[in-house]
Amino acid sequence: MKHFAVLIALTFPLYAVPAHASAELAAKSKCMTCHQIDKKSLGPSFKAISAKYKGDKAAEAILANSMLKGAKGKWGKIPMPPQKIAPVDAQKLSKWILTL
Known about the structure:
By secondary structure, the chain is mostly helical. The chain has a single domain, classed as Cytochrome Bc1 Complex, Chain D, domain 2 (Orthogonal Bundle), CATH 1.10.760.10. Helices cover 54% and strands 0% of the residues. It is built from five helices and no strands. The protein has helices spanning 2-15, 20-28, 46-52, 59-69, 87-99. The chain is globular, with a radius of gyration of 16 Å.
């Protein structure tokens, strides 16, 4: 039982990943080239995206799909081209954006 408690204590930090880890993933994935967390750049801010989709149960899938397949006409005339990221990273980024 003592070993089990130690194992849980050692693995817990893996589940308590801070929010900045996704900001790091966004930067690594080159999202920050067109987006910023709290201000408009070439694309909308991540906080504006989060606000637009607040309460939408399909938001996570919509955002991940936009990242993977691109999007047009959601935020004006400038389209978002498909991004070269893994689907699992698109899902992580979508979840993170929706927490802002």
